[in-house]
Write a structure and sequence with these properties.
- By secondary structure, the chain is mostly helical.
- The protein has helices spanning 3-10, 23-103, 107-114, 122-129, 151-197, 203-226.
- The chain has one domain (3-226).
- Helix content is 76%, strand content 0%.
- The protein starts with a helix and ends in a 6-residue tail after the last helix.
Length: 232
């Protein structure tokens, strides 16, 4: 039913003599239609707003969970960094002592130090020694070789990746929560315009307010059906 029809029923235009509908009955029918439309608007906006509040809260929880994960990862990162530095220091000190013993041709001391190399350092050390002439110290150090890889370093890299993912999740969850809050604001506008539309004595103003409420309701529904959904 178009606006002109509603206006005719409401008595804004002169009644059609051929219809045989009395003005009072036309106004009553118009009022009933308006009440039904307002009821549908209020009910739909209320349900949509409640859903948006729930989703905003759910995404807020996701954001807080990821913030907590980042905080735990930062503490673990400090621990792993300390361990990594300590192990590298041990490897470097033993290697420098071995180089000094090799330069002084202290074979017994060299064997003594080699027996105390850590398992993670030994592959790089053996690769570094390959190709060297007997009695000579190869150039460079084992620490620049790819075979020198510490478990703590690999764990740190994985931890950084996890922290990066958690940070992205925080940003996305915050954006989704803000979007649902904004949608709730549009829902409140629907409730406002639909609620006050029936308070006017002039049908034209009533229809204008209902039209505005419908526009905001379309925005609300469009956002509700397109925003990411999470159910906890």
């Amino acid at each position: 039913m178009g606006i002109l029809s509603l206006l005719k029923i409401g008595g804004i235009s002169s009644p059609d003599k051929n219809t045989g509908i009395e003005p009072d009955k036309g106004k009553q029918r118009f009022q009933r239609i308006i009440e039904i439309v307002i009821l549908v608007l209020l009910a739909t906006a209320t349900v949509a707003s409640a859903w948006c509040v729930y989703e905003a809260s759910a995404w807020g929880n996701v954001q807080m969970e990821n913030v907590g994960a980042i905080a735990l990862a930062q503490g673990e990162s400090i621990r792993l960094t300390d361990n990594d530095n300590m192990l590298r220091t041990i490897d470097v000190n033993l290697f420098l002592s071995w180089v000094q013993a090799a330069s002084e041709t202290q074979t017994g001391r060299m064997v003594f130090l080699e027996d105390r190399f850590r398992d993670e350092f030994r592959p790089a050390f053996n690769e570094w020694l390959q190709g060297a002439k007997p009695g000579e110290v190869p150039p460079g150090t084992p620490f620049s070789l790819q075979s020198y890889s510490l478990k703590t370093s690999r764990e740190l890299e994985q931890l950084k990746l996890n922290m990066s993912v958690s940070l992205d999740n925080v940003r996305q969850a915050n954006a989704n929560s803000d979007s649902y809050v904004l949608t709730t604001v549009f829902g409140a506008l629907v409730l406002f315009f639909a609620g006050v539309s029936g308070k006017w004595k002039w049908p034209v103003i009533t229809i204008i307010f209902i039209g505005i409420a419908m526009i905001f309701l379309v925005i609300v529904l469009q956002r509700v059906f397109t925003l990411p959904v999470i159910i906890t």
